[in-house]
Design brief:
The chain is mostly beta strands. It is built from 4 helices and 24 strands. A hairpin with a 2-residue loop joins strand 15 and strand 16.
């Protein structure tokens, strides 16, 4: 029995399995590898970066137990089946930034922001240590009612992190924002074909989601290629644009499948797996976040007649 691994990383890298077979990933094509089944193996990752003398090298340990592949970090694992796993290595050295220190805007405490860590110190004692998903170079910190707002400017957008009264963190990438009285409105582009913009409005005291909706600057293009229609439909589902999604359904499905039915049927998927060649069988794989760095997949089959979806089934 063999394990099939699909390898990639966020930067060009050389990946070596158990100090034997090496593979070069250049951001162009994912690497497909089959290895003999084993309970434990190691992958050494070396970043290729011509613009920096600093080379990031790290080793990831993998274990296979109970039909599940797990690791000790620095990789996202996407499970396609019990024996097929996609591994996306997270090379973070090029993102490292120096420590940034701030006076707390509301008291005499010290705030330290270092890479993916946020700390609050009181008389040199750490009273809060939070792990962040993103980094915030050249950041600024301000009080937002009873919350803290960390912001870092990136071109014309902002990376934001809001830490509420209960020390829960809310992070938003490449967004714009507007503060009015007791509310903050955050707009994030989803970078899909319809140019969807996700709008979230939060109250500030307490910090709580008030409403969430999708907008776009102009009416999105309607696709008539039957191989593209399932992807256009699911992109709208992912964006929360159920009205536009339903335009791809035939009249019978449109009447029976309302927003709540679609949300329940597809669940909380976080990504659509798009192959280099679109599937002529109209099968689409969705990626779901299980926990930490672990992801699972489900595949759905679409029947299409006259450019309308007439039936949807989960592939078992």
């Amino acid at each position: 029995m063999r394990l099939q691994l699909i390898l990639s990383s966020i930067e060009p890298s050389i990946m070596t399995i158990d100090n034997k077979d090496s593979f070069v990933y250049d951001n162009n094509k994912k690497i497909n590898v089959k290895i003999d089944f084993q309970d434990k193996f190691f992958v050494t990752v070396n970043t290729i970066n011509d613009n920096s003398p600093l080379q990031n090298s790290f080793i990831v340990k993998f274990e296979y137990k109970g039909n599940k592949l797990t690791s000790n970090g620095k990789v996202n694992i996407i499970k396609h089946s019990n024996y097929i796993y996609e591994l996306v290595f997270i090379n973070s050295q090029s993102l490292d930034i120096s420590s940034q220190m701030f006076n707390h805007p509301s008291n005499n405490q010290l705030i330290v922001l270092e890479n993916f860590n946020f700390k609050i110190l009181d008389k040199n004692k750490i009273i809060l240590n939070v792990k962040l998903k993103n980094i915030y170079p050249n950041a600024s910190i301000e009080s937002l009612k009873n919350n803290l707002l960390i912001k870092s400017h990136q071109n014309t957008k902002y990376n934001l992190c809001i830490i509420d009264q209960d020390n829960k963190t809310y992070e938003f990438n490449k967004c714009n924002y507007e503060i009015k009285e007791n509310e903050i409105k955050i707009a994030t582009s989803l970078n899909d074909y319809a140019k969807h913009i996700k709008i979230k409005v939060y109250t500030l005291n307490p910090f709580k989601l008030k409403e969430s909706y999708t907008a776009y600057p102009k009416t999105p293009k309607k696709f008539k290629n039957k191989n593209v229609i399932p992807y256009a439909f699911l992109i709208n589902i992912l964006a929360g644009d159920y009205k536009e999604a339903s335009s791809y359904l035939d009249e019978n499905l449109k009447k029976s499948l309302k927003k709540e039915h679609l949300r329940l049927f597809f669940g909380d998927f976080v990504q659509i797996s798009v192959p280099k060649t679109l599937n002529a069988n109209n099968e689409v794989t969705l990626i779901y976040h299980e926990n930490n760095n672990y992801y699972s997949t489900k595949t759905y089959c679409f029947d299409i007649t006259d450019n309308k979806i007439t039936n949807i089934d989960e592939k078992k």
